Every structure is written in structure tokens, then in C-alpha cells.
Amino acid sequence: MHRYGYKLAALGLAAAIVGVIALSVASFNQVFVARVPITVIAERVGLVMDPGARVKMAGVTVGSVESITPTDDATAQLSLSIDPEALESIPSNVDVAITSNTAFGAKFVSLSSPEQPSSARLAAGATIDASRVTVELNTVFEKLTAVLRTVDPGKLDSTLGALSTALQGRGERLGVALEQADSSLLEFNTAREALDHVLTDLPAVTQTYRDAVLDLMDTLDSLTTTGTTVLDEQQNLDLLLLNVIGVARTGEDVLGENADGIDTVLSLLRPTTALLEEYSPVIPCMFHGLQESKKIGDGAYNGQPGIKMSIGLIAGTEPYRYPDDLPKVAATGGPQCMGLPLRDPNINAPYLVTDTGVNPFAPERQPNGGQPMNTVPDLMSYLFGTEIR
């Protein structure tokens, strides 16, 4: 009885040890941890990517690779299992890369936030495209071997020899050229912002040209018609140009012979043109006044025999006296419209007093010196002044 008890105890101990080991393995493989499935599509995964590889975000492990399955379109499908708590901090537009720490190291899936992360979080069952896959050393060797198989060793030796000869003794010049190229690239980088603005505005400019293409085509058609007309009238055009040349030569001869006279005329006209320029504001007043006078005069001249006039008599002034009335050229005052273009017919036009030696309205030129008279003058004195008698 004791023998069977020991056997059962030993069997129970062995079963307990196996259970502990199984639980440890399951715990190590995170069998009891809830995971969220995510699918990654990559153009390739390389030779050192195996199931169980880590999935990292900012250097922290957030999951693992469950399986790797090739697809019909020559890509690889990676099934990932992600920690649900970590999934809450992963944006939906996360960048995915398959990378490794060294050229020979095992690969892992690296998650990184983009420059503008989305506010939405990565959802369970989402499918993401891997942006890049680290190149493995065997891939480099494979491509290099393919290149070496294609290249002829003799031609490669000749090319390298010619290149060595061309560069021999020119290292300093090559260095200067590289420095200049570096400076040019730096200037280009400085002007890149302006170039970006130009490229940004380019679509709007091309759209403008696109909208105007029909008008441009119409213009080109019109130019074609014009060109055809010019071609048809080629002889007449040649004759016209010859005549223009003849006129130009004749004008050159005339101007050449009369150059001194023309210079004299222009010099003499300078004071006159200067005076006209000074009094140019009066010219519009005069023409507008004439136009208004025509409107008023049409009623006096048209549609009837004779002329309608309003006539009055004014007092005469003293006749010319020497030397008091000698003329003077000293009038000043500048341009004045004197009420033009519209004048009130019931008001006498003002008289501009200037220093010309003559002022018919001066008091001393009025009858009786401008003073009230005690007697009424006779008609001759009233009309022609007292000196005429």
C-alpha cells in the first residue's frame, strides 16, 4: 500500500513539474496575453525575418510577427499581433519599415509616427504597406555578382586605366571643381524656397494659358491670314518701302539743308510757346465760352429775318492824349477765365486793369473827372468826351 502511495506521489510530482514547464513556455510565448491582429504588406522580407520577430515602436516592443506568407503578386504578407494597450498610442497612418540593427542581424518590424500623425488610432485587422525594407548583405552580393557577370573584365580594366590616367595629376583641380559644385548646390538650396513658390504658382499659370488657348488659336489664325495677305502684297509692300526710303532720303536732304533755319525758327518760337503754355488754362475757357455763346446766338440769328440785339449807350471817355496815353507792354496777372464759360447777361463783364498805359474806366478819363455834374452835358460831349468840342 505504501509502495503505491510513493508511486502516485512521484507521478503527481512529475506531472506538476511538466505543468510548470508548460506554463512557463506558454507564458514566455505570451499565450495568455490578449493580442490584436494587424497585417503588413511588404515587397520582400529578406532571409533573416522569421515568425516571432519583434514589433517595435520608438524602441519599445509592442508585439511580434505571427506568420509570414508569400502572395501571388510577389509580395509578402506579415501577420502581426499587437498589444491592445500599445495599440491606443499608434496612429492609423503609422509608417512601417522592416529593418535590422546590423547587416547580419535579425530583422524586426519598426513602427514610427509620421510627420503629421492622424488623430484616429490603428484598428484591429488593419492592413498597412511597409514603406521600406533594409537591404541585406546577401542582396548586395547578389546584385554585384549579376553586374560582374555582365561586365567584360578587359573592357573594365581599360575603362579603369583610362579613368586613372585622366585623373592623374588633376586631384587639386577636381577638388576645386567639387568645392564649386558644393557652393552652387548651397546657392540652389538657398533659392529653393523661391523655386517652390514658382512651382506652386505654375499650375495657376498653366490653367490661365489653358483657358486662353482658344483665343490664342484665333489670334494665330488671324496672324496666318495677315501673313498670307502680306505675302500676296509682297510687291506692293516692297514698292511702299522703297517709296518710304525715298521720302526719308528727301526729308534728310531737306532737313540737312535747312537745319540752321529750322533751329532759328524753333528758337524764335520758344518764347511764344512758353507764353501759350503759361496761358493754356484760358484756352478751354475760351472755346467753352464760344460754344455757350453759339447756343444763345442761335435764337438771335436763326429762323427769322433780321437780328435780335440789345443795344445801349455808354458815356464816352476822353480822347487820346500824348504822352499820357502812350502804350506800355507791362501787363501781368497770369491766365484768368473772367467768369467764362457761363456769363450772366444781366451783369457787365469785368474789366481787367493792367499796366498797359490805357484804362478807359479810370476816373480821370471819365467826364468831369468822374465827379457828379450839375448840368446835363450835350450829346457830343456825352458820347465823345469834352475834349472833342
TrEMBL record:
A GO BP entry: biological process involved in interaction with host
Cited Pfam families: Mce4_CUP1, MlaD
Source organism, top-level taxon: Bacteria
Annotated Mce/MlaD domain residues: 36-113
Any single GO CC term annotated in Swiss-Prot or TrEMBL for this entry: extracellular region
Chain ranges of the Mammalian cell entry C-terminal domain: 119-335
InterPro entries assigned to the protein according to its UniProt record, in alphabetical order: Mce (IPR005693), Mce/MlaD (IPR003399), Mce_C (IPR024516), MlaD_Phospholipid_Transporter (IPR052336)
Protein name (database record): MCE family protein
Species whose genome carries this gene: Rhodococcus qingshengii JCM 15477
Lineage, opening ranks: Bacteria, Bacillati, Actinomycetota, Actinomycetes, Mycobacteriales
